[in-house]
Design a protein that fits this description.
Blueprint: H1 3-10, H2 13-24, E1 27-28, H3 29-36, H4 40-50, E2 56-61, E3 64-69, H5 73-86
Antiparallel strand pairs: 1-3, 2-3
């Protein structure tokens, strides 16, 4: 995943809230909907954006879909920031 993809994803307030919730531990999609007061369609769209980036994973438990972070986001963001600040990022020199 490119750093720009991560930052585009977390720039959306709803997705950032999802990440913050999942950072506390796995949650069923129905609980995410309830906590965020979001429709099933809206929640599915947000999760569909996050899943291909490798930020979250889904696991079926019976009739429940449980979502969790693939890794702690704080560590992922810190790794990206360290990389950007190190000067090894060619895109950074264009900023």
């Amino acid at each position: 995943m490119q750093a720009s993809d991560l930052y585009k994803c977390i720039a959306d307030p709803q997705r950032l809230r999802i990440i913050n919730l999942l950072n506390e531990g796995p949650l069923c999609v129905c609980h995410l909907q309830e906590i965020l007061e979001a429709t099933q369609v809206k929640m599915s769209k947000q999760l569909a954006i996050m899943k291909p980036l490798g930020l979250i994973e889904a696991k079926r438990e019976g009739t429940w879909m449980i979502y969790s972070l693939t890794q702690p986001v704080n560590g992922l963001i810190q790794t990206n920031l360290d990389y950007l600040l190190s000067g090894r990022c060619a895109e950074c020199h264009q900023l």
